[in-house]
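A quick aside before the break. I want you to see a complete sequence-to-structure record at least once, exactly as it would be stored in a machine-readable document. Don't worry about memorizing anything.
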Amino acid sequence: MNLRRPPWRLALGILAILLLVINFSILNAEDAPVDDDLEEIEELIALDEEEGRGDEWDAHAKLSDAEVLTKAQRIVLELNSDSTRRVIEQNEFVLLLGYAPWCARSAELMPQFAEAATLLKEMRSPVVLAKLDAERYPRAASDVEIKGFPTLLLFVNGTRKAYSGGFSA
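That is the input. The structure line, written in tokens, reads:
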């Protein structure tokens, strides 16, 4: 008497279980809210409220590294075709990062740029850190003479000055 099941029955059983798991996952995904923007806004409001309470360093201690980076990246202004010239002219000091999303060096520089923005804000520095996606806004990039990636440009009272600083926070 052979009590062993044929291997195709085992494979069929595993396949049935996988199909149930996949079907369950799909049904749960369809029930999830589609509007993630509301969740992001609520997270940003919560971070802003936490920032308003107590010492800045205490707020940083309570946040994970990813949350601190997200918060820091919000401090960096994201420029577009309409805002680039206005931000440069309305602020005494602007350090502008010209980048391309596909550029690996730009991606490496982003967290350091965000960290620098955070440090400058904590010091109450008048320097505004901004970034411009030169691929998405080529005209604005051309207007400020971004020719390669990443490019750091310093503007003082609306006038471009030579930037001789490094590429770290």
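Two observations worth writing down. Confidence is low (pLDDT under 50) at residues 29-35, 53-63. The longest helix spans residues 7-31. We'll return to this after the break.
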